[in-house]
Inverse folding.
């Protein structure tokens, strides 16, 4: 939990005029944490630039250091990582993932490479989040995993490494992070790893991002069919990698343009972006905003008219809360589908969004795999954020249009976007 977690609610002030700005957002959390793992397992020293410095990435850095990998910050967005060549030298590490799902699910398979007992734990709210697929995969690899609390959850003790590799099965419909964690560890197993999905995959763009990171660090991944991934045990080689801006973070600023009739450009989020969430701009275009994506960034112009739509956000589920905020100001209802699995994120994100919209007087209802929002004018109120950074950032957008909106626990944004409210203030320039 961030140090500002119990700060007073932040009162939002509506914009006096539509914004006309270019803004910068932090580096991608998803790319940062993937690159950190690959660099930590590689042979040699890698340099990562554009790195996100936030609670989730600090949790990953601390975990890698606990495993004996060297991570040195050169400045706020650049670090060098000296890898361990696939063999973590620490015999009995105790890793604290804090509130970071990517840290937990990416480092759990790495513990199969560690000699001696390893402990993987997190903050109390994270202990409620599922870890069953990671635990089952470790056991399939030959490790002994002892759950110290509720089955399928942290904390756990892992023994039996280092293992050679082999074949595992994992479900794909809970979170793509479980598959990505196995893929990231796979090149370090001497015998490599074959992974078979037992269910259809959600959030496939995140797995594509993982594959891109493997390739950049010299690993070999083959996909003989839609549910099978084969990674050779050839290890990683050090690489220098520039991290692109975080597309999920950008979604809030682009949405702000759409709902206020202004112009916002996010610098650096180009047409070559590898993050699936970069497609959120296309969703705004479907609703009536004007969108330009070029070699320098992504720009949204609000036209003053937004249409409700039906959209499957399964491939970019981290933008579901952003779209819910936009939908409040559309003409006609918006139905978001394909996101049932986000009930197991930092909070039940479907129930939380519906609860808070209703608290503000907006008609919304849950569906099994999503939600429906009917447009309306939010009344004043304090929005509960449920230890969820994305609840804070998305509902803050309402306060750019209507008075009386306050965001409880604003410090929770430090998880992925510590300067969020400061960047949001740039819309007033």
């Amino acid at each position: 939990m961030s140090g500002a977690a119990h700060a007073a609610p932040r009162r939002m002030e509506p914009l006096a005029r539509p914004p006309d700005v270019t803004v910068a957002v932090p580096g991608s959390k998803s790319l940062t944490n993937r690159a950190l793992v690959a660099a930590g397992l590689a042979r040699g020293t890698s340099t990562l630039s554009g790195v996100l410095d936030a609670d989730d990435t600090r949790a990953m850095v601390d975990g890698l250091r606990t495993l004996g990998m060297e991570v040195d910050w050169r400045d706020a967005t650049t670090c060098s990582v000296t890898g361990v060549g696939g063999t973590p030298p620490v015999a009995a590490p105790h890793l604290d993932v804090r509130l970071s799902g990517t840290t937990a699910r990416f480092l759990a398979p790495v513990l199969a490479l560690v000699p001696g007992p390893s402990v993987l734990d997190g903050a109390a709210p994270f202990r409620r989040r599922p870890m069953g697929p990671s635990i089952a995969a470790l056991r399939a690899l030959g490790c002994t995993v002892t759950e110290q609390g509720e089955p399928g959850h942290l904390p756990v003790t892992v023994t039996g490494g280092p293992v050679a590799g082999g074949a595992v099965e994992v479900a794909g419909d809970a979170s793509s992070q479980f598959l990505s964690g196995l893929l990231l560890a796979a090149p370090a197993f001497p015998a490599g790893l074959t992974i078979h999905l037992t269910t259809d995959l959600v959030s496939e763009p995140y797995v594509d991002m993982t594959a891109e990171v493997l390739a950049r660090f010299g690993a070999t991944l083959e996909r003989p069919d839609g549910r099978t991934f084969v990674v050779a045990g050839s290890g990683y080689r050090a690489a220098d990698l520039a991290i692109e801006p975080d597309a999920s973070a950008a979604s809030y600023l682009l949405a702000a343009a759409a709902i206020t009739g202004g112009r916002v450009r996010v610098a650096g989020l180009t047409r070559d972006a590898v993050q699936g969430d970069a497609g959120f701009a296309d969703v705004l275009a479907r609703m009536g905003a004007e969108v330009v994506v070029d070699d320098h960034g992504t720009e949204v112009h609000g036209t003053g008219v937004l249409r409700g739509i039906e959209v499957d956000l399964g491939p970019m589920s981290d933008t579901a809360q952003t779209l819910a905020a936009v939908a409040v100001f559309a003409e006609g209802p918006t139905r978001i589908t394909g996101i049932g699995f986000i009930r197991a994120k930092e909070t039940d994100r479907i129930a939380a969004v519906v609860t808070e919209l209703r608290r503000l007087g907006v008609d919304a209802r849950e569906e099994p795999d999503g939600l429906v929002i009917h447009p309306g004018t939010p009344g004043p109120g304090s929005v509960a954020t449920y230890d969820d950074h994305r609840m804070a950032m998305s509902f803050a957008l309402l306060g750019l249009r209507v008075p009386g909106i306050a965001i409880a626990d604003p410090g929770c944004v430090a998880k992925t976007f510590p300067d969020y409210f400061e960047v949001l203030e740039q819309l007033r320039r």
